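Box 3.1. Reading complex inputs
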Amino acid sequence: MWLRVNLFNTWLSTAVTLALGYVILRAGIAAVEWGVVRAVWEVPYGPTGIADTASCQSAKGSGACWAIIADKYRLILFGRFPYDQQWRPAIVVLLFVALFALSTVRAVWRRGLQTRLIQRAAIAGAMLIVLDNLADFLALIAQIGFGLDVLRSFSLLFSVLATLNFIGKWVLTLGLLFLWPAIGVWVATLAVIGMLMFGGVLGLTPVAVDYWGGLPITLILATFGLAFAFPLAILVALGRRSTEMPAVKTLCVVYVELIRGVPLISVLFMASVMFPLFMPPGINIDKLLRAQIAVILFAAAYLAEVVRGGLQALPKGQSEAADAMGLSYWQKTAFIILPQALRLVIPPLVNTFIGFFKDTSLVLIIGIFDLLTMGKVALSDPPWQSFSTEIYVALAVVYILFCYGMSRYSRGLERELNSARGR
Amino acid sequence: MVRFWPMCATAVVAGLLLGGLTSGQALADGSGSATLDAARARGQVVCGISGQVAGFSLPDSQGVMRGLDADTCRAITAAALGDANKLKFVPTTAQNRFTALQSGEVDLLSRSTTWTLSREGNLGLMFAWVNYYDGTGFLVKKASGVKSVKEMDGASICVQPGTSTELAITDYYRLNKMKFTPILIQELAEVQGAFLSGRCDAYSTDASALATFRFSQGAKADDLILLPDIISKEPLGVMVRKGDDKWFDIARWTFAAMIVAEEKGITQENVDTFLTSTDPDIRRLLGVEGEMGKALGLDPKFAYNVIKAVGNLGEMWDRNITPMGVPRGINNIWTKGGLQYAPPMR
């Protein structure tokens, strides 16, 4: 019945249905034939460990050579991370996926146990971290600016500070777990991820950032990038709409227009090529961190405009009503304006998120090898050079999994949040 | 209270950001600025490579960097620190490679970089040695019957735009008063595909890359011919910063040691049997007598460490380039008709 109404309603739609059905069927059969029936799943290896791809070469054009995936999947997923340690990035990927999955459960985002004691403890923990970082930063400035080796002269003080920092991190994380479980879980998971990737603690071999690659790089850049860019974007969007603070407004406008006016590649280039030349010799800020900051700044400018769209869409009455109730600016913004504005812009927000997830592959141009680039590296191996289709199909599957996950989540979120509005 | 929270949040965010910045930095060692001192303090030599070129530097399926450039890094690290594993590979791109070396992000640049006057004169960098004498070559289909570039007047040639190859072909054709149609394609895979599908009569790039491409075709490799003409000079080498002559010496004499080792037939496997040799050259090379290492500021057995780690120059070639079907030709040592000639180590 459904078929007749939707597909065979008139002679024209019947013709279109038949034609499209034929095309889909042919394409499907061809795909199965290429990908399954005539595919080569493994190749023999020579005595020196070099793959003999003759069977793949002869199947080229008619069947897929999945042997290349079997040979290279660990290189593509985890890059040059030491082979016997690759369980670490594997867990990291799983942790990221688990974190995303958990975050989609709305209950997790509820407030936790908000007692004054836990609040104070969390603040104290945060302050300890800030104190140590501030001291380190000042020591660095003294080092660069005046050539004073403060770190060595007051080594005891700094080791005490470092210990306090360590304790502070634990207190803050535990405190957050109680106050806002979701944020606590995020902080804790990201800490574990950092520990697994860097190593150097609990008997894990330290692994330099230069050896990271593949999927963890893509996930780190995208997750940290968007997690930091989103709050920044909200601040910038609010700043840009500010009427009472022209200086802040100008700053936000200049920031957004400047970043939007240049391609991401040039921001990355600045971070990678120009920035080191301005630094004093011997001081290197890690390349991945530089790229990460560039991605954050770039994503924030775009997200800010999306958020501003939501703010513009709210009727002025909302803000006036809040004012009339005597709410302060931050109360008004946090409880009245933003919840409504953000739910309006879920589709463009997710659009930007997905865009940036894929844009992270541009870090290739500064020598960081993300998932896509590792695929290209795998393709450079002479015996496998002519099997690019298989690699790109596999990469596409990974990207689709993550991007489709994001779309699904946003659709669910929209349905739930907008149920009151009946659309 | 309301004002208090945003303040706290700001402080925390600022603190975290500052922390991220500070912890990412390695504080410079105050003792001295020599590259070797820094590498010793760090316990690591940092070597800039490409990471994407088969035969030169490309991770294998286990993620271990393989290739001539990678082994060059290993050799110099073994000479400097005595252990080839005290090495960090940093992938660089064609755009950021020189900055990486200038800014001290890497100690060495071993990234198939051509030695030219303007690069050495303008960039504050210098070439320590050539590890591969390359040149622009041409690949044609056997069926075309072409035997030499001279027969290719009016031909269409597939080439990547903006490369030194494009300039070399233009110069060559102008000099020989011939005409050609360039087919410019940016992506490597596409330019190769265009050549295979017959969009152009020849495919031109560095001869090493052509040989690798030909080899990657498996059984179909015999349908393609690499023309004997090499129309430009592309000496690819390892670069260091100017102003650290000691470090330059280490890089240069590492190569000399590997060449002498090949001359004398010393290999990674049999090097230990030469420790009791009576040949004074070998005794000096392996640090049994004389103070060759000390003159460079290194361990007296630096050359022994190099050979133990990567073997002699020929072994490095056989391990990385031979599997791709490239004959050694001018890259051989001078006693076998090549260009690799080491000054005496005494």
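In summary: Residues 47 and 108 of chain B are 5 Å apart (CA to CA).
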